[in-house]
Amino acid sequence: MRPRRRGAGTGRDQLIAAGILTDVCVALVAMSGIARGNQVHAVLDASGTWNDLASQAAALRMQATGVTLNSSVAVSAELLHDWREQGDAETVGTLTGHALPFYGSLVSFVACRAQPTGV
Fold first, then answer.
1. Which residue blocks in 19-94 are alpha helix, DSSP H?
2. What gap in Å lies between CA 103 and CA 73, rounded to an integer?
3. Per-domain residue ranges of the chain
4. Mean pLDDT of successive 10-residue segments in the chain (119 residues)?
5. 103 in Cβ contact with 76 (< 8 Å)
6. Which residues form a coiled coil (predicted)?
């Protein structure tokens, strides 16, 4: 199986990989991305496989080739960088409302702490 060169010519050098089978879909795409010189993040909690041993073996194999093992929350936080820029609040709201609803409690906490206390 040869992955197609999606994204070639876009000027982007990062790849975020997730899939149904960690040991097949994710591992093959991630390691192919590394071989092509990309920085690759494998989102392990957004992927699965038949058993824990296969998942662990795939993670070790990917990590040995230079793939960054990551979680959906960590990747989302890295994509957002800084919530203080104009328009970022809307992006965070959309992300936490649809994709990561449990992350919304952190956003609410940070927003409350940033507000003046009325003193």
1. 27-35, 52-65, 72-80, 88-94
2. 8
3. 14-70, 79-114
4. 57 89 95 95 92 94 97 81 69 68 64 60
5. yes
6. none
Three-state secondary structure call for residue 25:
helix
CA-CA distance, 106 to 102, in Å (whole number)?
Answer: 8
Token pair for 24? 């097949």
Return the SS3 of 95.
helix
Torsion of CA 19, 25, 28, 34, to 10 degrees: -10
Contact between 32 and 6 (Cβ < 8 Å): no
Tokens for 87?
Answer: 């328009």
Tokens of 96: 């936490």
How confident is the model at residue 57, as a pLDDT?
96
The one catalytic residue in 15, 16, 25, 27 is 25
The DSSP code for 23 is I
112 is catalytic: no
C-alpha atoms less than 13 angstroms from C-alpha of 119 in its C-beta half-sphere: 1
> Position 20: which residue type?
I
